[in-house]
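Could you join me in thinking about how sequence relates to backbone shape in a protein? We need material for that, and I hope you will provide a protein of your own picking. Once you have written the record down, we can walk along the chain together:

…
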Amino acid sequence: MKKESRKIIFIFARYTFILLIALLAFPVFYKVFLPLTIYPASFLLSLFYHSVVSGSFILTINVQIELISACIAGSAYYLLLLLNFSLPLAWKKRVYSIAFSFAMFLIINILRIFTFSLLYINNFKYFDITHLIFWYVLSGIIVFLVWLSTIKLFKIKDIPFYADLKLITGKIKR
């Protein structure tokens, strides 16, 4: 089989994987990342207050902090995975770049939850508006910055989707 034909098959396989994750395994992001997020956030809070994890709640000094699925940000992990799989990368680079982007986002998300928990516990006057601004504006910027960091660290030169589209259209023109 020609090298070009293998590339086309590989593109098809990557996009099939992206679709299958979206259709079948999307809830897995929340199941995997809930404990990876809530326990470290609770640990950080325990440095200042007694805190206990119960399901998706962090219980601390008369305050219950519920981490809903939006707090876990499974869609952000999916977006990072989508961007990664929409590029023609070697497997080793792909695995490392996914691990890096997931770890980086996880750390930022834990720190975000910890910070907002402190604000909530201490009855910060502007908690609601700060939380909404962060959710609607800064969350997308954070994912973008994580992706830019991944591109820079792993020296990714291709543009997601475009590199594949360019290869396919070049094949069609021939």
